[in-house]
Specification:
With 76 residues, the chain is mainly α. The protein contains 4 helices and no strands. It has helices spanning 2-8, 18-29, 44-66, 69-74. The longest helix has 23 residues, at 44-66. The chain is elongated and about 70 Å long.
Length: 76
């Protein structure tokens, strides 16, 4: 499609998907908010995997805390 449009028009035209345009705009402007341009946008599957990892880690910390792990290390 890009090649077809380029052959019809003499000037430069940005051709992309809605999502890639959004990511491009974010990368160009995110520094204004104090964030790095080096970010990742997760899809639904990636988000679910990350949430599972986080919840598993929280559960592990809660179990360790219940055994007094943190209290004994903080008392040192």
């Amino acid at each position: 499609m890009k090649e077809r449009v380029k052959s019809m028009i003499a000037s430069h035209v940005l051709i992309c998907t809605f999502h890639s345009l959004g990511a491009r705009l974010l990368r160009e402007s995110i520094h204004v908010l104090g964030y790095s341009r080096d970010f990742t946008i997760y899809d639904e599957q990636d988000t679910e995997k990350l949430m599972k990892v986080c919840l598993d880690e929280i559960e592990g910390l809660q179990k360790a805390d219940a055994k007094g792990f943190f209290k004994s290390h903080l008392a040192r």
